[in-house]
Structures are given as structure tokens and as C-alpha cells.
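DM from R.C. (forwarded with permission)

"hey, sorry to bug you on a friday — could you get me a structure for this? deadline for the figure draft is monday and I only need the backbone to look sensible"
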Amino acid sequence: MEQSLKARRKKAQSVFYKALFRFLIFKISSKFYSKKKKEENLRKLNESLAKKIGDVIMELEGLFIKVAQQISTMSNLLPNEYTKALEIAQNHSNPKPFYQIKERVELELGAQINDIFQNFEEQPIGTASIGQVHKAVLKTGEEVAVKVQHLKIDEIAKLDLELIEKLIKTIKYFIKIPGVDGMFKEVVKMIQEELDYEHEAQQINTISQNLKNDSRIIIPKTFSNYSTKKVLTLAFVEGEKITNHEYAKHNGLNREELAKNLLHIFSKNVFLDGIYHADPHPGNVLVNENGQIILLDFGAVGILSNNMKEGLIILMQAAILKDENLMIAGLKKMGFITTTPGIDLISKKIIRLLGDYLQNELKIEKFNISEIKINEIDFSKVFKLIKEINLNEVQQAIQIPHDWILLNKTIALTMGITAE
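My reply, with the result:
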């Protein structure tokens, strides 16, 4: 049964304040524990609360799942227990009954569903927190995928975002979480864009135009006559998840070549075009039997400022040249380094570690991003790098530019796919 708006608010606030109360009790009582006992009790508390929060997110669905998706990707913001629970929650979306989908389609397209489509499958082929996708056939005989927003999703989005913002403000009063404000602002922006399918269609057309001469990529065609802000009709494209190793083996596809192609495509989008698909998880990145990569779901699209694009180039050049001053200039251009007095000394320490990592671990010997060998990365050394960089120093030196948040998430997802 769907939750009323009032019940959603009550349920979310209840689990949040119970969790906060248990944390405060722990904080007071932990003063009397040894370090080992304190760490063990904190781990148990995190496991217990993470499960409760994850269960409530799955029950409430809506925007809570969408926020869980973002936070679980940016795993450095929360302890592991929570990111694991959120990873489970983000894969949980129940389909809405077909009569609601039919109502939305007919309301938006202004005609009976049978007058628009030869066939419209009642069972969705994909379900998410904001909408779901149904396979259909137009009267012209073209196979399409119809993306339909859930009824009342605007009301739910407004309520959930207001509630999440209040909860974040409360958390910040007790606990400092670096980057949480920027992350939330980016999530709000993304959700507002995802609720507008006309905007998504424009982004699809722009990125498709940018990649029109690249035969390695397929982006489904949009059908503007059958699309509105709440309904998006796209060409149906056959494919399997790019991480499906059996499919790749069966069709004689070279997985290393697929990973290289995906990196090249995203590198062009980011460094040259400045506009890119910002949610490349395996469900949105498919491959066909010919080895062509298929990108789906452009609800989340990142756009880089000129300063961020230029700063990225400067940063990579500086890392290769081991030029700390140039690297600081690049980070400042990107909006990372604060203006705190004496900050260059702290920045240089962080940069020295980062520069050594880029050269020694990624083996970048010249300015050519295509030469990065993803399969050769030792991820244990990534964690060592993070450990060596003092978090307090990072907080003094670094601020997080808003357009980096989405890019960081995209890089993490892309690297995850290519490393599989």
C-alpha cells in the first residue's frame, strides 16, 4: 500500500530521530569505554542503524531511493555500514500498477493508449524511483521504449526534498560531514532535471550529435511527437549489460577493448564537449552483439564549466611534469583550493602524494588519457593514498566545486565498470 504524504513524513522523521538519539547515547557512554570497545560498539551501532534506515528507504521509495543512489556512490561521506545498506536500497523500486501508467500516458499524450500504440506491454522492462519504462510499438510499426513518470511524483519529490534538507541540517548540528551541502544541492538539481523529460530529450539529442561520427556508440533516437515533460518515447535498442561477461564471450567481444572504448567516449564527452552521461551504472551501459556500446537513461547529465575543463587539463599536465605550483594553479582553476592563509604548504603535501600516485600507479608517461591502463590499477594502493592524506588537512585546503560532485560520481561508476 502506498504511503500518504503525511505518513511518509512521520515514518522518515521517526527513524531519523531514533537513530540520532542512539548516537547521542553512544557518544555520552563511549567516554567510559576503551578504544577497542568503543570501536566495536560503534561498528555494531552503525550496522543496526544502517539496516533500519535502509529498510525504511525501501519502504518509502520515492526520492529517498534517489538520494540513497547518490550517497552510496559518494561512499567517502559515510561509514561502510551505511553505504552497503544504501547500495541494497538503491536497487529496490517496485513497479506501479498499469492503470496508473495508462492514466499518465493518456493524460500527457491526449489520446487513448490504443489509438497511439499498436501494442503497449503492461509489465515494465525497467523500474526506478521516479518512473518506469515499458516496451511498446507505435502505429508506424517502430519498436519503442516509453519512459513514464509515476503519478504524484512531483508532490512526493517536493515533500521528500524538504524533509531530507531538514534532516541534513539537524545532522550538521551534531556531526560535521565534509561536502554534504554541495552533494545535496547537486542532488536537488539532478532531481529537478530528471523530473523534466523534455530536458532529458534535449540532452540526449545534444550528446548524440556530439558522438554522431563515432560508430562505437549507440544512443536511442527520441520521438518528440510522443514525448512530454512526463512521458519520453525512445527507439528500443537491444543489448546486454556491458558487465555481462558470458554475453561478451558468446559474441566474441574483447572486454578490454570495450573498456577502452567506453573510456575514450567518456573522455571526449568530459574533456572536449563538457557534457556527459552522469549515471553510467551497468544497467544504463549496454553492449550489442557487434560490440557497440549503448547508453540509456540520460536523466542525469553533467555539464562542466570552462574553468573545470581547463583546470582538469592543467592538473593532468602538472601531475606528469611533477610541477606542484602548476598543479595548485590547476586545482585553483577548478575551484578546489581555498584562500586560507598558508594553504599552499598543505596543498603541496597533498599534491605530492597525488602526483606520485598518478605517475607511479597509473603509469601516465605522456599527456594521453587513452594510455591509462585500468586493468593495471592496484586499488589497494588507492586506499593507501587516501590513508596517507590527512583528512583534517584536506578539509582546510580543499573545497568541493559543485560540478565536481557529479563528475566524481561518474568517474567512480565508469572506473567500476571498466575494472570488472
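R.C.: lifesaver. The first helix runs from residue 5 to 29.
me: no worries. The CA atoms of residues 26 and 142 lie 60 Å apart.
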